[in-house]
Amino acid sequence: MARLVLQLQRNQRQALRWRGLRASSRCVSTNTSTGWHDPSPTELLRATLLGATTPNTSDGTHLKQNKRILELLDTDWPRGSPPPPLWYALKGVPPREEQEDSERLHSVASLSSVRNATERLVVNSAGAEVFQRSLKAMLQQCHGKVTYSEIQSTLSDIAVRLQRLELPMTADLCELGMYYAALNLSSPAFHQVFKDCLRLDPDGFTFVKSGAIIRALYETVRLELFKNPNYDAIHILAEVTGEYAAVSEQSIPKFHDVLHRNLDLDLGSDGRRNWATYLCLLSKLRSDKPFTHSWTHFLNKAIDSEQELHATYRIVSDLIQSGRSVIAAKCLEDISIRNRDQLPYIATFRHLQVLLDDPVVSESLPDVVGNELYGVILELAFSNMEQRLGIQWQADGSTHIGISANSSSTAFEDQPLLTIDGDCAGYDDPIRLYAELYALGCSHSPADLGRIVNLLNEHDGNALDVVPEFRSESALPEFRWCPQHSPIEFSHAVLPTVTDSTREWTPALLGLIRARPLINDMPQERAGSFHFLQLGSLEIRRGPHEAWQPSGYIVGWNRLLGRMTALFVGKDAGLIDSGPMPSAAPFGTLLHLRPSHMHALVDSPWSSVDPFYLDLDPGRDLGFQ
């Protein structure tokens, strides 16, 4: 502000010199009727900001005086230093500088730079358009450095500035505001941004264009309910669908209403996939009538390809996990009626076990799946049971045999599959450990996770090959997983030296570990935390003739996503303090792994280089307090 006033005064003195007058003169005009005098800094600032220095007068003196003051802005800012943002706000941004700003906005990587760009560009329609067009990329480069709340606050300030200056708001800004309100799970922000978006375009949200917002809502709600099963989702549900009128403004349409306009348009595969994710969101939020309304329309638009039917079955599995088994069974019946009393591709659905484990849904399956497919499902169920016992059926020999080459037993004849002590014939087969992980690893029962811990103890010392799932331009070493119960202990929660079968499971005894993103050296609760069950350590070697070496990573099971993951802790076993991960991670701080005998998933390659804060997972989803 001070720089601007000083420069205006310099411009004034320069203008007076051009007229052959001295800046010190208080009466500089030969026409005394105009009353023109050297304006004070206060008058300069008032004139530039408000367009007037004095109240209206009958002789129009103030108009002439204001005009002369404002003419001082027509001169150029002196070379050698950039003008302050207020200079642009008063003059507007020249077209040449708009182009220069548009080219260098890609280097903006901090919120302070975003704010500077806002003040520099959001002063006229052209500059505002350039700025909003580049805003998404600028904010993406801020990820990991600031919280979603800070980004959301910045977006709110930008919207207020646009409204105050009566500049156009683009659809890009609306979508960003909704997206970050969803990531922050802020119902007030979601409400306000949505109202602004409705004013811009009442039909602006469709299943085709709103995929990022829908996915952000779903992933954030799912994680929040996992971390805190008692989380009250009423407010966000009220903003999305209008349910719970007591906490929802009923005078405007809701996100749900706008999404379901113009459903006669061709949605394409992306639109239908986003719609399925939206129904998963409503399942998690325990929506009632809006879910039924959307589900009915969804079935009328669905395409019966394998990929899209799997997305539909995912809605059913989310209903089951939300405790709504009766509705899940009814949805399966609706799918069956649509497909002539069959459930196509149900046997290849990744989460089929969720359906089979639910008493209500599994009881209804024989009536809706069709005889042929039901036989296939039974075969899969038996095969899964056999894998969890470490055996498989050999039809030629009419006997059970071991599954993998690592099994010590190759055939099981004249012996029980289960002993009186609870051991199974294929107890040492590593496939048994994998099968139990995939069956129980996402359970919310401490006893189920305890069974995995017991299996880890049984397989301790038996290294198993695993494959890292991330893209790398250089050759990767070999990796192997060494199963072990809780290789890492936290200094404040050391495991007891002696345990027995009567022990009660605790987060420390199960080996639970949590990784939260670090932003400004502070662990974040709502920026995508990870929750793992420790499975052992990870060893590497660079060549087939070299010795295996500790990698500094441990292996964990992602209890929310059901994925094997490597976490960098800097050592393969021992005590650590709660705190930031070590920084020297050779392959990223987190990376996906898979057993060498399993096929890669389509969405599998993933790793992270972001810093995380490691501590003991409180395990609230398991009922621990």
- Widest sheet, order of strands: 4-5-9-10-11-14
Q: Roughly what percent helix?
A: 40-55%
Oligomer: single chain
What is the mean predicted local confidence, pLDDT? 82
What is the β-strand count? 16
Which residues sit in consecutive blocks of at least 5 with pLDDT less than 50? 18-34
> Count of DSSP helices?
23
Shape: globular
Structural class: alpha+beta
Q: Quick one: biggest sheet?
A: 6 strands, antiparallel, barrel
Tell me the radius of gyration: 33 Å
Give an overview in words:
With 625 residues, this protein is α+β, with helices and mostly antiparallel strands. Among the domains are: 2-87, no CATH class; 389-428, no CATH class; 446-622, no CATH class. Helices cover 45% and strands 13% of the residues. It contains 23 helices and 16 strands. It has a six-stranded antiparallel barrel. A three-stranded antiparallel β-sheet has the order 1-2-3. Strands 6-12 form a two-stranded parallel ribbon. α17 (325-338) runs parallel beside α19 (359-368). The longest helix is centred in the middle third of the chain and has 19 residues, at 371-389. The chain is globular, with a radius of gyration of 33 Å. It starts with a helix and ends in a 10-residue tail after the last strand.
Attribute tags:
625 residues; alpha+beta; six-stranded antiparallel β-barrel; three-stranded antiparallel sheet; 16 strands; globular
Brief digest:
The chain has 625 residues and is α+β, with helices and mostly antiparallel strands.
